[in-house]
Specification:
By secondary structure, the chain is of the alpha/beta class. The chain is 42% helix and 17% strand. The structure holds guanosine-5'-triphosphate and magnesium ion. Guanosine-5'-triphosphate binds at residues 285-291, 303-310, 333, 400-401, 403-404, 424-426. This is GTPase HflX.
Length: 500
């Protein structure tokens, strides 16, 4: 065993992005050095294409020989990928749609999709996900296309991942890891980043496989952390160290997230005091949620033809044409099989949904299977609702992108989703009706509050009398202190006057 103190190699630093550690190779008792010769280069995608291709043809070479921690390895940018799916139920068109979505997800993650294979089976193979014959075919596809990664359209067990990697001899990841990767790339806020890291580690923990276990390699030569997920320390097998470090870091992240959540709860409480109706815009990824918020509020929320363009909830105020104020919150999109780790991590974000006065559930009307999107979204909402032990928020279904569908399709959708509002965030069609529906909904609830109305605001006083009720009033030096009962939406307009 090599003591870290005696190593001639420098400790890693946070910006050390060499994922292959020479020190470890040299200290490998199993003589890993020979096998690793070709890999003692950064593997972050800077390998020349021919080098990469040649790597794949070395017999018996598998990614398990790469000396990076599992977490680092899984976080490498995906580059050239082959997709593979198991079609267990539903129509051929649905199976295809699932693969098309997987391709869109892969591209969102920054990879180039070279090939896609799908296998019809009653259920995924317990040992290799796809059947062994298909696995050989997959290996061929990987070789001919020069892919460096295989992405499976499902959640694989750690054993399945390992077994499949042994056959195809390139990195294999599953849908869950892919979605986690996208979230990791897109998260911008401190809280979002912390949540994603936590989710990634949670996913990774049971999947640490102890690469090089067969060589009973012990870590040496590198202690301390590298950019947060450097996970080696002296005197333990690498996998033990990895696990311990990950757990420590997860605990730290959980503490941090709890702190951030507290300040948001305070913000939310302030909003509640103001009684401005809160409308949360939720729905499947790429359904047009941000576009709808923009169309309804005239603001510039990021819109992109990419999955998961929005990760952090964005709140925008809008005034309905009767002067009632509302707050729209744009939220992270949902996707089929949203990793449970993410549901967990984004719980506080999802609580925004559960917490709303009204959820505008946006559906892409131009998608081939809107019903599936709807149930995927409802499933996540129900999960959060069940855990919180609260009543589900009222929902208004909004079918978007009606500019992109023909009359026949429109009639079908109206038949199936009669209660929905039909809009186009792009052309503005249907928005007035949507506003009517919103107004009708929020008019149902009245609130009581105490306000200080300056003498100059006689207009407000008459409106309160018209639309609400004055419970008591008392004249002061600069105005009238009033206890009033008004529609919740009107309370928003009185926000600045709320008495301390
Ligand atoms: N044809 C058409 N396209 C739309 C409409 N609304 C949005 N889009 C397009 O759909 C894509 C996604 O729009 P976004 O508003 O970013 O969707 P989102 O639901 O916020 O997506 P995420 O934040 O990634 O989950 C963009 O390319 C928009 O231009 C619409 O009414 N009609
Ligand atoms: Mg968005």
């Amino acid at each position: 065993m090599t003591e870290s103190a005696s190593t001639p190699f420098p400790l890693s630093t946070p910006d050390d992005d060499d994922l292959v550690d020479l020190a470890d190779i040299e200290s490998s008792p199993g003589g890993g050095r020979d096998i690793l010769r070709g890999l003692a280069q950064p593997t972050t995608g800077e390998l020349q294409l021919n080098e990469r291709a040649s790597l794949q043809r070395v017999a018996g070479l598998s990614t398990e020989l790469t000396d990076v921690t599992e977490v680092e390895y899984r976080q490498l940018r995906l580059e050239r990928v082959v997709l593979v799916g198991v079609w267990t139920e539903g129509s051929a068109a649905q199976a295809r749609a699932s693969m098309v979505e997987l391709a869109a997800l892969a591209e969102t993650a920054g990879s180039e999709v070279l090939d896609a294979l799908i296998q019809r089976r009653s259920r995924p193979d317990s040992s290799t996900y796809i059947g062994s014959g298909k696995a050989d075919e997959l290996r061929e596809a990987v070789l001919t296309s020069g892919a460096d990664t295989v992405i499976c359209d499902g959640e694989l067990t750690p054993a399945q991942l390992t077994a499949l990697e042994k056959i195809v001899k390139v990195k294999v990841i599953d849908r869950t890891a892919l979605i986690l990767d996208i979230f990791a790339q897109h998260a911008t806020s401190r809280e979002g980043k912390a949540q994603v890291s936590l989710a990634q580690m949670e996913y990774m923990l049971p999947r640490l496989r102890g690469w090089g276990e067969s060589m009973s390699r012990q870590a040496g030569g590198r202690a301390g952390s590298n950019g947060g997920v450097g996970l080696r320390g002296p005197g333990e097998t690498k996998i033990e160290t990895d696990r311990r470090r990950i757990r420590e870091r997860m605990a730290k992240l959980r503490r941090e997230i709890r702190g951030m959540k507290k300040s948001r709860t305070v913000m939310r409480a302030a909003r509640e005091r103001n009684a401005i109706p809160r409308l949360t815009v939720a729905g499947y990824t790429n359904a047009g949620k941000s576009s709808l918020v923009n169309a309804m509020t005239g603001s510039g929320v990021l819109v992109q033809d990419a999955l998961f363009a929005t990760l952090d909830p964005t709140t925008r105020r809008a005034t309905l044409d009767d002067g009632r104020a509302v707050v729209f919150t744009d939220t992270v999109g949902f996707v089929r099989h949203l990793p449970t780790q993410l549901v967990e991590a984004f719980r506080s974000t999802l609580e925004e949904v559960v917490d709303a006065d009204l959820v505008l559930h946006v559906v892409d009307g131009s998608d081939a299977f809107p019903a599936e999107q709807i149930s995927a979204v409802r499933q996540v909402i129900n999960e959060v609702v069940a855990d919180e032990g609260v009543a589900p928020p009222p929902e208004l279904l909004v079918v978007n992108k009606i500019d992109a569908i023909d009359a026949t399709r429109m009639a079908e959708l109206r038949g199936a989703l009669g209660d929905a509002a039909f809009v186009s965030a792009r052309t503005g069609e249907g928005l007035p009706e949507l506003f009517d529906r919103i107004r009708e909904f929020i008019g149902r609830s009245d609130v009581e509050l105490t306000i200080d109305v300056p003498y100059t605001r006689g207009d407000l006083v008459s409106r309160i009398h018209e639309e609400g009720e004055v419970l008591s009033s008392e004249h002061t030096a600069d105005g009238t202190r009033m206890r009033v009962r008004v529609p919740a939406a009107f309370a928003g307009a009185l926000e600045e006057l709320t008495a301390p």
